[in-house]
Write a structure and sequence with these properties.
heterodimer; A: about 110 residues; mainly beta; 7-stranded mixed β-sheet; 4-stranded antiparallel β-sheet; 11 strands; about 0% helix; about 50% strand; B: about 110 residues; 6-stranded mixed β-sheet; 5-stranded antiparallel β-sheet; globular
Chain lengths: ~110, ~110
């Protein structure tokens, strides 16, 4: 068990709709990062949350937004869905102030936009 | 920003042979280099990592080498087994927990029995 849980596992949405993906970090971790993995590609960094604030952001439009809650869990929201948003969305957690042992990834949410 | 190139994109080897995957990076500030294995439909899993103060690290059949001058690092798998078949990703990052990893595009390794 990875310790990072994501929901839902699969999701089908229509173009123009909005979607919310959820992530609970590994116990003891306080930092959550979101990645988008298109088919056949490596994961691409979307943004990172720590202390309920977005700390860093990758090259993604404002349609992608997020939130972190006091219990360190996080949500990724995508508005006005495009076909190109179809991908595996991965959540990864770390302990911000500790030595960096590498992310712990969740199993991901497979989003299909039709 | 950091850019990571990974080669080859696909690799087929006979069971028992060795496999080598190579990555180059652009940002000289990067000093942490993990490798992830991703099986079909599953999450990426860290298999080995190396920091810039080390030139080589080994864990059983898996080893990673790092050349900071040339800005490249490689994954070596010896005595390959069918269960090594997966997609392997290299990544680079300055070594801190709040810095995002930049991934390569992946190498699909097939081990033929």
């Amino acid at each position: 068990d990875a310790g990072v849980t994501q929901s839902p596992t699969h999701l089908i949405k229509t173009r123009g709709q909005q979607v919310t993906l959820r992530c609970s970090p590994k116990s003891g971790h306080d930092t959550v990062s979101w990645y988008q993995q298109a088919l056949g590609q490596g994961p691409q960094f979307i943004f990172q949350y720590y202390e309920e604030e977005e700390r860093q952001r990758g090259n993604f439009p404002d349609r992608f937004s997020g939130h972190q809650f006091p219990n360190y869990s996080s949500e990724l929201n995508v508005n006005a869905l495009l076909l190109g948003d179809s991908a595996l969305y991965l959540c990864a957690s770390t302990l911000n102030l500790a030595d960096f042992y590498g992310y712990t990834f969740g199993s991901g949410t497979r989003l299909t936009v039709v | 920003g950091e850019n990571v190139e990974q080669h080859p994109s696909t690799l087929s080897v006979q069971e028992g042979d060795s496999a080598v995957i190579k990555c180059t990076y652009s940002d000289s500030a990067s000093n942490y280099f993990p490798w992830y294995k991703q099986e079909l439909g599953k999450r990426p899993q860290l298999i080995i990592d190396i920091r810039s103060n080390v030139g080589e690290k080994k864990d059983q059949r898996i080893a990673v080498t790092l050349n900071k001058t040339a800005k490249h690092f490689s994954l070596h798998i010896t005595e390959t087994q069918p269960e090594d078949s997966a997609v392997y990703f290299c990544a680079a990052s300055p070594s801190s927990g709040n810095t995002p990893l930049v991934f390569g595009k992946g190498t699909r390794l097939s081990v033929i029995a």
